[in-house]
């Protein structure tokens, strides 16, 4: 179950305020220079780091609004109240922008019992359209020295093309992660059409590229409903675009190892505007999608109203969704869309190898249809590196793989027949006794190792 992550990280210096004012004066120029991979944005972020560290020494608060206002009178500042982050940690945030500048900065400090744990400083550039795009980030260690920097490199078409990772010297490139790489050439894969609605997919991974759905010209059939472009590359930037989660590729990796021949339609979910789920599902219907995976959810039913209406309008598509990983009965405390009672919605949760509900996995006698062993699995990330994964998110691709095999054997089956066959294949959980916790029981199916 995917939820909005909250992640985020000074050096004592006496650099003059003029250094930072210089940063602000050249903001418009840096907006054009940043994102080219030349690292110019780090100079400005380092100036902010020094200012924050001085504020920490002089006031005990690296985001002290009065300190920044007095030191940089030409800049507007705003500060968020301190909030608890668990484990004795607190978080303070500061936002800064010079009037008329197209660059804004955010500084987030994490304190542990009043001591600095880490700081993250980000810069964002405004576009003529009125939107802002992320440019660079500097992560700072507790000793007030740079730990690592990251810069998003944009192509001439305005798309973010890669994330450059830079070492503590703010010069040495440690690596580069693709963000919207070109789709490899290829032909349409043959098989059951399965859509993966997630954070996107690493469609450039060779084994995945072979299984993509393509049109007659070889163009990828898929869409990024987050950024509204045709490149749904794997990146959940909810917490920070500089430290993105890669979730969809892990889901797709397991799906491909359970299913027979499938043609994948990758879709990046519409986090900025959940009403886009309406056109997203319409897009799937137009492409003849048989099965769609959705390994995510939230506590708010309002987030999912557009999805619910679209699913009801397309009863032939089987949507397989995760029950969630909150360790609760979702009959009593719902998670959505899993709690919607829809005939073409199959809700799955994660079990241990012995068929018991895994620690942290959700259940529900009415809301959860089946469980599958999805703990301590191995999945490959966008680079092909193997990673251990667990949770109801990964029960979803196992169930989808089984549904795809059924669809391959029975091409005329639609959502009702596919769902009924999976429910019929389930057997009672071994630990339920007289009080069942899942509607139909479990299916003992695990993916082969990569």
Automatic annotation (TrEMBL):
GO terms for molecular function: serine-type endopeptidase activity. Residues 190-432 form the Peptidase S8/S53 domain. Pfam families: Peptidase_S8. The keyword Translocase does not apply. Keywords: Hydrolase, Protease, Serine protease, Signal. InterPro entries: Peptidase_S8/S53_dom, Peptidase_S8/S53_dom_sf, Peptidase_S8_Asp-AS, Peptidase_S8_subtilisin-like, Peptidase_S8_subtilisin-rel. This is S8 family serine peptidase. It comes from Marivibrio halodurans. The lineage of its organism: Bacteria, Pseudomonadati, Pseudomonadota, Alphaproteobacteria, Rhodospirillales.
């Amino acid at each position: 179950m995917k939820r909005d992550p909250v992640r985020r990280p000074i050096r004592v210096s006496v650099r003059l305020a003029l250094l930072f004012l210089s940063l602000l004066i050249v903001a418009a120029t840096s907006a054009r220079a940043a994102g080219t991979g030349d690292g110019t944005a780090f100079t400005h972020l380092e100036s902010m780091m020094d200012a924050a560290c001085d504020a920490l020494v002089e006031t005990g608060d690296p985001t002290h609004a009065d300190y920044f206002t007095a030191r940089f009178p030409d800049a507007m500042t705003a500060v968020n109240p301190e909030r608890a982050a668990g484990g004795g940690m607190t978080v303070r945030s500061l936002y800064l922008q010079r009037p008329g500048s197209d660059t804004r900065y955010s500084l987030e400090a994490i304190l542990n019992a009043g001591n600095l744990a880490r700081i993250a400083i980000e810069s964002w550039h405004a576009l003529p359209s009125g939107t802002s795009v992320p440019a660079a980030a500097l992560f700072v260690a507790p000793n007030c020295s740079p730990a690592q920097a990251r810069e998003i490199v944009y192509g001439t078409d305005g798309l973010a093309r890669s994330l450059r990772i830079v070492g503590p010297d703010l010069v040495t490139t440690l690596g580069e992660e693709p963000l919207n790489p070109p789709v490899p050439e290829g032909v349409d894969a043959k098989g059951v059409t399965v859509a993966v609605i997630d954070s996107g997919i690493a469609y450039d991974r060779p084994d995945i590229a072979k299984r993509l759905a393509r049109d007659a010209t070889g163009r990828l059939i898929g869409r990024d409903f987050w950024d509204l472009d045709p490149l749904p590359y794997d990146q959940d930037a909810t917490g920070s675009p500089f430290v993105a989660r890669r979730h969809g590729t892990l889901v797709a990796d397991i799906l491909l190892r359970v299913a027979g021949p499938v043609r994948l339609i990758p879709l990046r979910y519409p986090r900025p505007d959940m009403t886009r789920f309406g056109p997203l599902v319409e897009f799937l219907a137009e492409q003849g999608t048989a099965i769609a995976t959705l390994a995510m959810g939230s506590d708010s039913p309002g987030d999912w109203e557009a999805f619910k209406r679209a699913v009801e309008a397309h009863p032939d598509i089987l949507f397989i969704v995760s029950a969630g990983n909150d360790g609760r009965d979702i009959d009593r405390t719902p998670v959505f869309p899993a709690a919607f009672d829809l005939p073409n919605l199959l809700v799955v949760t994660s079990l241990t190898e012995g068929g018991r509900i895994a620690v942290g996995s959700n259940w529900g006698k009415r809301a959860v249809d089946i469980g599958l062993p999805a703990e301590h699995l191995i999945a490959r990330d966008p680079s092909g590196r193997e990673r251990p994964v667990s949770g109801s998110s990964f029960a979803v691709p196992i169930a989808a793989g089984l549904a795809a095999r059924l669809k391959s054997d029975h091409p005329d089956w639609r959502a009702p027949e596919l769902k009924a066959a999976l429910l019929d294949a389930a057997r009672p959980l071994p630990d339920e006794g007289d009080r069942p916790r899942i509607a139909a029981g479990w299916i003992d199916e695990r993916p082969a190792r990569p």
